[in-house]
Design goal:
single chain, 19-stranded mixed sheet, mainly beta, flat, 19 strands, 2 helices, 269 residues
Length: 269
């Protein structure tokens, strides 16, 4: 139980950070309330940033989906997507769309993206969906509040925090630290030597796929739910109703899986 409490502290610290960095210092105040969000105004966006001499990408969303795909043989970070506002009239939705912005910063060693929207929405529905392609060796940091965070084909560390929705990792070769409050974490990761995988949820499931020859000290813990280990050989395995520990291979890395309410599965491939 003490370990779960520590995990929860980390989760809420990370997700609070994700919410914080999603809010700009200067936000447009919206005082008038709308009665519905039946009318939607949309606008597409496109950014292309040179990837040369850069190795990091960070993004902070609020409402919407974030999809990040690593590709080979590219010299650019491409950021595309659509922003939308739902309101009680077409004219109000279109006017409010001007208060919803995608802020892109070119840093010395990377690229930073964040959603900038009014702190007070007046009942309007602000949404930004992102589609990013970038070199697959970039280090990734992604934060969101409501929606999906999906990261595919990255050969580096991936850090992600979300509040409500899903965090989905596919074909990651690197360490990963993932936190979620409500929803599902599903990850397929190849752990490097001495690497670390930490997947922590509060309400929802945690599913990890790793190579059968992975080397790590393994632990999985929960409060309410079940833990299943499939196609993996755990040495010195210790099982209780709420925790499973053991050693994979030579135990050179670390794998830690946790949820409060849900199931945990670890599967070898």
């Amino acid at each position: 139980m003490k370990n779960i409490i520590k995990i929860l502290f980390v989760i809420f610290s990370l997700t609070s950070c994700a919410v914080f960095i999603s809010c700009n210092d200067t936000v447009t105040q919206v005082d008038d309330e709308v009665s519905n969000t039946d009318f939607v105004a949309t606008e597409a966006f496109y950014f292309s940033i040179a990837a040369q001499n850069r190795s990091m990408f960070s993004i902070a969303g609020i409402n919407g989906n974030i999809n990040i795909n690593g590709v080979s043989n590219t010299d650019s970070v491409i950021i595309t997507g659509q922003k939308s506002v739902g309101s009680e009239s077409v004219s109000d939705a279109q006017a409010s769309l001007q208060n919803l912005n995608v802020v892109v910063q070119e840093l010395t060693d990377g690229v930073s993206v964040q959603t900038d929207q009014p702190e007070q929405t007046g009942g309007r529905n602000y949404n930004v969906n992102y589609q990013i392609t970038l070199p697959k060796d970039f280090l990734i940091s992604a934060g969101n509040v409501n929606g999906i965070v999906s990261v595919d084909s990255i050969n580096n560390t991936v850090n992600a925090a979300n509040v409500n929705g899903q965090v989905l990792l596919t074909d990651i070769v690197g360490s990963s630290a993932i936190s979620l409050v409500n929803g599902q974490i599903a990850a397929k990761i190849t752990l490097p030597l001495n690497g670390t995988i930490g997947l922590a949820n509060v309400n929802g499931n945690v599913a990890l796929q790793i190579p059968i020859n992975s080397s790590a000290e393994f632990s999985a813990g929960l409060v309410n739910g079940i833990i299943t280990i499939t196609n993996l050989t755990l040495q010195n395995q210790v099982n209780t109703n709420t925790k499973v520990t053991g050693t994979l291979g030579n135990g050179e890395g670390t794998i830690s899986l946790a949820t409060v309410n849900g199931y945990i599965s670890a599967t070898g491939f």
